[in-house]
Design brief:
By secondary structure, the chain is of the alpha/beta class. It has one domain: Ribonuclease Z/Hydroxyacylglutathione hydrolase-like (Metallo-beta-lactamase, Chain A, 4-Layer Sandwich), CATH 3.60.15.10. Helices cover 22% and strands 28% of the residues. It is built from nine helices and 16 strands. It has helices at 18-23, 48-54, 72-75, 78-85, 100-103, 115-118, 204-214, 226-231, 233-244; strands spanning 7-11, 31-35, 38-42, 64-67, 95-99, 123-127, 132-135, 138-144, 153-159, 162-166, 185-189, 218-222, 248-250, 255-259, 263-266, 275-277. The strands form two sheets. Strands 6-5-4-3-2-1-14-15-16 form a nine-stranded mixed sheet. It has a seven-stranded mixed sheet with strand order 7-8-9-10-11-12-13. Strand 3, helix 2 (48-54) and strand 4 form a beta-alpha-beta unit. Bound molecules: zinc ion (2 copies). Residues 16, 71, 73-74, 169, 223 line the site of one zinc ion.
Length: 279
């Protein structure tokens, strides 16, 4: 349980892209976002069901599900989550926010959630850049992303502990950082390490530009591809921290970030020493 007002992010999965997803070198289970009694799952890829339950975060408690684009590392467990959220299909409740590609299909991809499952929910929200919506006490704004699903979005969350950004999958473009200014915490999906040009995703060099321009109080890197895992995300995070002066941490599967007066990172193992970022 999270104390009222405190916000937490559970990094149930920190992997991204086809090869990490299909090998499960890192999990692809997405992120659980909690504020008091409001519980939202972001991008439930393969493993989301298993690792949510494994972490004691039952999907039956979810109020909302957000799917930022129609790629399987972001959506595969969504229909099972909808059955969980709706008391096994018996109660019409819960919010699903998804892009046009996720909900209706577009440009030859999707939809990725059946009409039957969409009909079980109380509210459906079709997200485009600038779409604002609420789930419980949390307010969201969909942000611009440029990715191979042309309807992809990122997110900006207004929480009781300040703004939280989530880039989701995007390539670099002029103005990307403008969506993420003034944040307490930016969750930056950084697929590849320095010196590895990549289309439609960010590498560490591009993440550096985003951080320099957006200047969040703290940053957590996630959604790592194979090259990033081979290079070592911790070293990339240390480089970004040194270059920007902003605290930057590489997420690990099962890590929890508690956001209150400070940001405390815990786990994944019980023996791991908590790390506090005083921002
Ligand atoms: Zn992805
Ligand atoms: Zn993607």
């Amino acid at each position: 349980m999270t104390a009222s007002g405190e916000v937490s992010l559970d990094f149930l999965g920190t992997g991204g892209g086809r090869f990490v997803m299909t090998s499960q070198r890192r999990r692809t289970a997405g992120i659980r976002l909690t504020q008091g009694d409001t519980r939202v799952h972001l991008d439930p890829g393969p493993g989301a069901l298993v690792f949510s339950n494994w972490a004691g975060l039952s999907p039956r408690e979810l109020n909302g599900l957000i799917i930022t684009h129609c790629h399987p590392d972001h959506y595969t467990d969504a229909e099972v989550f909808i059955e969980a959220m709706t008391d096994g299909t018996r109660a019409k409740q819960g919010v699903l926010a998804g892009t046009k590609s996720v909900l209706r299909g577009a440009d030859g991809i999707g939809p990725c959630i059946s009409g039957y499952h969409q009909g079980l929910l109380r509210d459906l929200i079709e997200m485009y850049e600038g779409t604002r919506f609420s789930v419980g006490d949390l307010d969201f704004t969909a942000t611009e992303a440029r990715h191979s699903d042309p309807y992809s979005v990122g997110l900006r969350v207004s929480s009781s502990q300040g703004g939280i950004g989530y880039t989701s999958d995007t390539g670099s473009f002029p103005g990307l950082a403008d969506s993420y200014t003034g944040l307490r915490l930016l969750v930056l999906c950084t697929m590849w390490p320095r010196g590895n040009p990549i289309n439609i995703h960010l590498n560490t060099d591009e993440a550096l530009r985003v951080l320099e321009e957006s200047r969040p109080k703290a940053c957590i890197l996630t959604h790592f591809g194979m090259r990033m895992l081979n290079a070592g995300p911790e070293g990339e995070a240390a480089y970004l921290q040194k270059e920007t002066g902003i605290p930057v941490v590489a997420a690990r599967d099962g890590m929890k970030a508690h956001i209150s007066d400070v940001i405390t990172l815990q786990g994944p193992r019980k023996t791991d020493e908590p790390m506090t970022i005083d921002v």
